[in-house]
C-alpha cells in the first residue's frame, strides 16, 4: 500500500469508514479482475481518491456489490465498488502508472535489494508491465496516461536542475500536473465539465502536498545514504516545507469547495481533514529525533522499529528498564537485507495482516494487524465526521 491518506477509524464514523473501505477494496479487486493478482501490489491509498471524487459528483447512487470475505479485511465481507465502475478503473489506471514510476525511481536509487542487477532488471520489467496495464485500463474510460508518464519522466530532468536557492516547488510540478489531470478527468466521467477546473486545481495542491510529505518522510534517510532529496538539494528546511504544505492544504480546501459535489462527505473527509492529519503526523515524526534510552543487557540496537508502518523510529523505554521479554531480533548476517526486505514486502502485500516475528503486532488479532482496521494510537478524539453533509 502507498499513499498519505490513510484514515483512522476512530477519527471517522462507521458510515464514512465503510465507504472508504469500499473504494479501497474496490480498487484492489479491480486491479485483480483487470490484470491478475500481482497487480494488486499497486493498490494505492491516494489512487482511490479519483473514484471518491467521481462518486461525489454523481447524483444517482452508485451500485456497490457484495465482496466475499477477504484476509485483508480480517476475513469479513464488504460492499465494494464494482470493477466495471469507471471510477474504479480510473483509480486502477492511476495506481498502476504511479507504481511503475515509483518502482523505476527505486531502481534508479538502487534501494535495498535493487542494488543487485538481476533483481533491478526484474523490477524494471515489472514496472513496464504495470505502465502498459495502466494505459489499457485508462483507455476504457477515455483517459490518456501520457500526461502521467510524461510527468514521471520529466521528474528526473527537473531534479538535475535543483540546487541550493532554487524553489523546491520546481520539483513538485510533475506530481501536481499528473494528479491534476486525473482529478479533472473525474468531472468528464461524471458529466459535470464545469468541475474540471476546480478539481484540476485541487489535484495540483494535493500533488504538491504528497510530494513534499514524501520528501519530508525520507529526508533523514536520504541524507544518510547520500540519495537525492528535493529538500536537501534546494536547502529547504522543515519549517519552510511545512509552510508550503499548509498553504497548499488551504488551497486544496478552497478548490474543493468550488466544485459542485452533491455527495461531498467522504471526499471532504479525505482531502481536507485526513490530509491535514497527514501533514501534522509527518512533520511531528520528522521532528522527533530523540535517540533511544540506553538499556543495560541485550543489544537493543538490533531491534527494529516498533511498527512496520512507522519506519525510522527506534524502540525506546522511558523507564530505562525492559518491561518484559525482549522482542525477537531482526535477522543478521549477509542475507539480512533480503530477509528484511522480503518481510516488508509481505507486510505491504497483505495490508499488514502478515507480520514478521519481530513485530509487536504478530500475535494480535486481525483488526490490530490489518492497516485498514487497526486501532489508531495517534489520537484520543471521538468521531469527527462530515455525515451531516455541511461545510462547517
How would you characterize this protein structure?
The protein has 392 residues and is mostly helical. It has a domain of 274 residues: Farnesyl Diphosphate Synthase, CATH 1.10.600. The chain contains 12 helices and 2 strands, in the order ααββαααααααααα. α2 packs antiparallel against α10, α6 runs antiparallel to α7 and α7 packs parallel to α10.
Helices and strands: which structural class?
Answer: mainly alpha
Uncertain residue ranges: 289-328, 332-340, 375-392
- Name the beta content range: under 5%
Series of H and E elements:
HHEEHHHHHHHHHH
CATH class of the domain at 14-287: Mainly Alpha
Summarize the structure.
This protein has helices spanning 14-35, 49-57, 86-109, 117-139, 146-161, 169-190, 196-225, 230-234, 238-258, 265-287, 336-349, 366-369; strands at residues 65-70, 76-80. With 392 residues, it is mainly alpha-helical.
Helices, strands, pairings?
Layout: H1 14-35, H2 49-57, E1 65-70, E2 76-80, H3 86-109, H4 117-139, H5 146-161, H6 169-190, H7 196-225, H8 230-234, H9 238-258, H10 265-287, H11 336-349, H12 366-369
Antiparallel strand pairs: 1-2
